[in-house]
Specification:
Layout (H helix, E strand, L loop, with lengths): L2 E3 L1 H16 L11 E7 L2 E9 L5 E6 L8 E2 L1 E2 L5 E6 L7 E7 L5 E4 L15 E2 L11 H9 L8 E5 L1 H4 L10 H14 L4 E4 L3 E2 L12 E5 L6 H13 L3 E6 L3 E2 L20 H4 E2 L4 E3 L5 H17 L4 E4 L2 H5 L19 H17 L4 E4 L21 E3 L1 H12 L10 H4 L10 E5 L11 H4 L4 H17 L3 E5 L24 H19 L13 E8 L4 E7 L6 E7 L5 E8 L3 E8 L16 E2 L10 E7 L3 E10 L6
Parallel strand pairs: 1-2, 11-12, 11-23, 12-15, 15-19, 19-20, 20-21, 21-22, 22-23
Antiparallel strand pairs: 2-3, 3-7, 4-5, 4-8, 6-7, 8-9, 8-10, 13-14, 16-18, 17-18, 24-25, 25-26, 26-31, 27-30, 28-29, 28-31
Helix pairs in contact: 4-5, 7-9, 13-14
Length: 641
């Protein structure tokens, strides 16, 4: 539907919209700023509106007018915005703003609210209106409101789109070209969600998408808004959720972008120490400025509402919480403290607004410090996220598995310590892109020993992750044990699947994901201490950990035995909660997964003898370097319900 306005109405509407924007309360500001198609006093064309409060003069230049002087824009009273309507602009044409900045310099700048940009290395904004899609994912959207994600399975597949697959000449696929293949692959492998590293416009592949220039645009290298909408819709139609990484802390510093947009510290802090992000070579958003609240919260809601995303993984939260998180000089608070109070308030406001509108949204914090109550509600003193990446668990787990097996008994606390804080936050357990780059080696390559033992160790580590409390995340390539590190400019080593061991590891990933989704004990009480019972966490000498995962019903439980040594343990005894018979649900050393076992151990009958403070136990062979999962077959004394 074309917006129809006249001059008087337009002026009044813009002043109202900009009042909300300037007070930090306009959470749909992309509908007022940027480029939009409208009928203005009976003539169809495009309106362009930009926030540049300290500019002396703003003109629009582009394909539809003179690129040198362009069309002078009108200042909307004291709102800090400039606007113009032109019937000459057509969808698909290029444009920029020609800004006479506060210091008199003339700069060409992109539209911060543009929905599309030229394909790099060109950088102009493209005339485009918001598409009006008729969505066909109503069943998914209804079910999302019905189910509490905290008590549902969540196994996330993290993807960097242009390096998942590449054309033979090394060029990238668009999102529409990969839609069918990527969605069917993720579904076949048993994951529940796809998480994309940032898909917004960015000029440098080496930034992996985390240094953005166009917050409201799908990167031109990936495709169009409509194509991404279609991708999300197709994923929802096969019951896959879609999450995207989002970067509200810092932005690209390229001169044509938002940096010192009107010649002053407009989007960034006035204090240079706060404005400059030395570590990442970017600019930090001024999170104390009301207009930045409107810009960023609108942007989060834009991706959630216009693209039906199921969640946002908020990048670099720590950099917004601390004044001294960066490597450069920093300015402390008046009392000498280092907490960024403006950043904290922004994060709380962001999560409050989003979860009030969309309570089912996944708001995931990538927060790498010990900040408390990250996933507690704002009204209870928390930051308001509903999940946090468990970086401590990830670091300790990888450090433990990189040890030679004989060293593990002396560092067993690395694998058990996480149980001490597993329920302090709502956690996601990530083996992400950050762990397989910059010389850190791939997950498979981190494992000690020969190739056979590397894969055995990798299976044990993945099974430990799947049985530990918390939702799960795997970066692409982990699922088939890629040996090489992730490289942003080339596709995954798909030819590895021609190798028998890689192929079997891929099958293992598929099967353990399927098992995870079927077994309520592994996710129903993920964030409740009653969802786990530690059987024995003190067997450091043998490097064996045993625990029980539980669902809401008494019969929904699994006994987890983790052998972190390449030594078989015959006649191994483990205490069980009920008398009866138990069976293997999983043995990571089965030959179908790459191990040496060809059949399971059959039914295991309990012995009425106390082990691990349990009245009954079962005895079994615990294979070398393995995880064995037992489930009840026929048991006595289980309460009803």
């Amino acid at each position: 539907m074309v917006k129809q306005v006249n001059k008087e109405t337009n002026q009044r509407l813009l002043e109202k919209e900009m009042y909300l924007f300037n007070t930090g309360q306009h959470f749909d500001s992309y509908l007022a700023l940027g480029c939009s198609f409208e009928n203005y006093e009976g003539t169809e064309g495009f309106r362009f509106t930009v926030w540049a409060p300290n500019a002396k003069k703003v003109s629009i230049v582009g394909d539809f007018c003179d690129w040198t002087n362009g069309l002078e824009m009108e200042k909307v009273n004291e709102t800090g915005s400039w606007t113009i309507f032109t019937p000459n602009a057509k969808e698909g044409q290029c444009y920029k703003y020609l800004i006479e900045q506060a210091n008199g310099e003339i700069k060409l700048k992109i539209d911060p609210y543009a929905y599309a940009f030229e394909v790099r290395p060109k950088d102009a904004s493209i005339v485009k209106d918001l598409p009006q899609k008729k969505w066909q994912d109503s069943l998914w959207m209804a079910n999302k409101k019905r189910y509490n994600h905290a008590t549902r399975p969540m196994a996330i597949y993290e993807v960097h789109l242009s390096s998942w697959r590449c054309h033979d000449d090394g060029s990238w696929y668009t999102i529409s070209e990969l839609q069918e293949e990527l969605i069917s692959y993720v579904k076949e492998m048993g994951y529940t969600h796809i998480e994309f590293m940032p898909l917004m416009e960015h000029p440098l592949d080496a930034s992996w998408g985390y240094q953005l220039t166009g917050y409201y645009a799908i990167s031109s290298k990936y495709g169009t808004m409509e194509e991404f909408q279609n991708f999300v819709e197709a994923a929802h139609q096969v019951n896959l959720g879609v999450i995207m990484d989002w970067v509200p802390g810092h932005f690209n510093r390229n001169d044509y972008g938002m940096a010192y947009f009107d010649g002053t510290a407009q989007f960034e802090y006035t204090d240079t120490n706060q404005a400059q992000n030395v570590r990442w070579g970017t600019m930090n958003f001024d999170l104390g400025k009301d207009q930045i609240h409107s810009f960023l919260i609108s942007n989060a809601l834009y991706w959630l509402e216009q693209f039906h995303l199921d969640g946002l993984r908020v990048d670099a939260v720590s950099s917004m919480l601390y004044l001294d998180y960066d490597e450069g000089p920093w300015t402390p608070n008046e009392d000498g403290s280092n907490h960024n109070r403006e950043g904290v308030n922004f994060i709380k406001k962001l999560n409050s607004v989003i979860l009030e509108r969309h309570p089912q949204t996944l708001m995931i914090a990538e927060e790498s410090t010990a900040w408390s109550n990250v996933t507690s509600p704002v009204d209870q003193g928390g930051l308001g996220f509903n999940y946090k990446w468990n970086m401590g668990w990830m670091n300790d787990t990888l450090k433990f598995f990189e040890l030679e097996p004989h060293q593990r008994k002396d560092h067993f606390n690395l694998i058990t310590f996480s149980f001490m804080y597993a329920f302090n936050e709502r956690y996601i357990l990530p083996f992400s892109h950050d762990e397989v780059v910059h010389g850190k080696k791939s997950l498979m390559h981190k494992m000690p020993g020969d190739r056979y033992n590397q894969f055995a160790g990798l299976r044990v580590m993945e099974a430990f992750k799947m049985t530990h409390p918390g939702k799960k995340l795997d970066f692409m390539g982990n699922e088939f044990g890629q040996f090489l590190e992730w490289r942003v400019h080339s596709e995954l080593e798909w030819t590895s699947l021609e190798d028998n061991q890689n192929n079997k590891h891929s099958y293992f990933t598929k099967k353990i994901n399927e098992m995870y989704k079927k077994e309520r004990a592994l996710w129903e009480l993920d964030h409740d201490p009653s969802g786990i019972e530690i059987v024995d966490a003190d067997n450091a000498e043998q490097s064996i950990l045993t625990f029980i995962r539980k669902g809401k019903k008494p019969r929904d439980f699994l006994i987890i035995l983790c052998n972190f040594m390449p030594i078989e343990r015959p006649n191994f005894k483990v205490g069980v909660p009920y008398e009866g018979t138990y069976e293997e649900r999983l043995n990571t050393e089965m030959s179908e997964f790459g191990g040496v076992w060809t059949k399971d151990q059959g039914l295991l009958k309990t012995i009425n003898e106390s082990v691990n403070h349990q009245e009954n136990h079962v005895e079994l062979i615990l294979p070398a370097m393995s995880v064995v999962i037992l489930r009840p077959k026929r048991i006595k004394g289980v309460p009803k319900g």
